[in-house]
């Protein structure tokens, strides 16, 4: 809670999947949501947090309301952005030019050069944009980074990342199934893992894509202190047998030098912790996202080399047809 220093928030993308975590964070840090926007009006979730917040389904009316608050001496302090990935850049620009600081869900943007432009707007407006990079606040991950930082300087770890999060046919009919809007599988479901890996193990020296289709991506990252093989998928048929038997639809594991790194718990409060850091002036500025955005941009624009070199074992799984026959 931030005591008497109650900040005014507005939220863009109130009907989105990730919005409840931002609403919880605004509420639990003792702040106030004064306005929300989404072109979809299924936002009954606001009743659980901020029933008095003004809501708009047209951005122009949302903007008029926020501008009016500024003229009346009650300006919005922060804009939270929870919109589809391809709109993040535009909505961050909007928030900065409104005269607010901005908190944006990952991925910050789709292309590295968008960060350069946003930093120029930060300079022009005098306001700041922050990215949610919540895995950097996870206790187990912080401890792992400390262990690596304090370990032998020449140690190079062997890392296998496997992340399978099942999605139905709706995914391909939504903006998430359009690579131009989501950035593809690596960007949409993997960007925070790539950020975590480069944050712990250092800069990228090699970025190879072995397999990349509508429902999966597998590749290799050479980092300063790690050789990383990864496999990301939204296809339930790629789940390992032990996950299927347990009726789990999500499988997430990181193996480091043959040992499983456990970080399955401790996720529920990370958005609130992110907001606490931002409100204390310690949030992750947009420059912090550059490395992971460069990684996913390079993956997206790569030509897969096939099953050559050091590839993840699950890359050998048979490919599946696109559900819509594309």
Quote the CATH topology of the largest domain: Dihydrodipicolinate Reductase, domain 2
Give me the strand/helix succession: EHEEHEHEHEHEHHHEEEHEEHH
Ranges where pLDDT stays below 50 over 5 or more residues in a row are none
CATH architecture of the largest domain: 2-Layer Sandwich
Give the overall form: globular
- Could you give me the name of the CATH homologous superfamily of the largest domain? Dihydrodipicolinate Reductase, domain 2
CATH class of the largest domain: Alpha Beta
The average pLDDT is 94
N-end to C-end Cα span: 50 Å
Specify the helix fraction band.
25-40%
Structural description of this entry:
With 326 residues, this protein is of the alpha/beta class. The protein has 2 domains: 8-131, Rossmann fold; 135-266 and 286-316, Dihydrodipicolinate Reductase, domain 2, CATH 3.30.360.10. The chain contains 11 helices and 12 strands. The chain has helices spanning 19-28, 59-71, 88-98, 112-125, 139-150, 170-173, 179-182, 185-201, 241-245, 270-279, 290-300, and strands at 8-12, 32-37, 54-56, 78-81, 101-104, 129-131, 157-165, 204-213, 216-223, 226-233, 250-256, 259-261. The protein has a 6-stranded parallel β-sheet with strand order 3-2-1-4-5-6, sandwiched between helices. It has a 6-stranded mixed β-sheet with strand order 8-9-10-7-11-12, covered by helices on one side. Strand 8 and strand 9 (216-223) form a beta hairpin. Helix 3 (88-98) runs parallel beside helix 4 (112-125) and helix 8 packs across helix 11 (290-300). The longest helix is centred in the middle third of the chain and has 17 residues, at 185-201. The chain is globular. The N and C termini lie far apart (50 Å). The relative contact order is 0.14. The mean pLDDT is 94.
């Amino acid at each position: 809670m931030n005591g008497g220093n109650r900040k005014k928030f507005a939220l863009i993308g109130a009907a989105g999947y990730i919005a409840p975590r931002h609403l919880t964070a605004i509420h639990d840090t003792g702040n106030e949501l004064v306005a929300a926007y989404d072109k979809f009006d299924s936002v009954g979730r606001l009743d659980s947090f901020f029933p008095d917040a003004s809501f708009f389904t047209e951005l122009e009316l949302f903007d008029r309301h926020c501008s009016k608050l500024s003229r009346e001496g009650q300006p919005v302090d922060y804009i939270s952005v929870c919109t589809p990935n391809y709109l993040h850049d535009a909505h961050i620009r909007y928030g900065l030019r409104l005269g607010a600081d901005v908190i944006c869900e990952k991925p910050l943007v789709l292309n590295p050069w968008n960060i350069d432009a946003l930093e120029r707007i930060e300079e022009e407006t005098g306001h700041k944009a922050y990215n949610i990079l919540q895995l950097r606040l996870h206790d187990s991950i912080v401890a792992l980074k400390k262990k690596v930082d304090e370990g032998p300087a020449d140690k190079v770890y062997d890392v296998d990342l496997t992340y399978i999060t099942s999605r139905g046919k709706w995914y391909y009919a939504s903006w998430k199934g359009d690579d131009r809007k989501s950035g593809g599988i690596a960007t949409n479901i993997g960007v925070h893992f790539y950020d975590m890996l480069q944050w712990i193990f250092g800069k990228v020296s090699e970025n190879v894509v072995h397999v990349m289709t509508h429902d999966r991506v597998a590749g290799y990252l050479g980092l300063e202190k790690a050789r990383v093989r990864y496999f990301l998928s939204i296809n339930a048929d790629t789940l390992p047998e032990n996950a299927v038997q347990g009726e789990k639809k999500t499988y997430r594991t990181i193996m480091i030098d043959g040992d499983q790194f456990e970080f399955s718990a401790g996720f529920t409060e990370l958005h609130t912790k992110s907001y606490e850091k931002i409100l204390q002036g310690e949030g992750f500025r947009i420059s912090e996202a550059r490395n992971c955005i460069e990684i996913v941009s390079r993956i997206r624009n790569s030509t897969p080399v096939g099953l050559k070199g050091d590839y993840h074992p699950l890359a050998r799984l048979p490919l599946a047809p696109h559900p819509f026959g594309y």
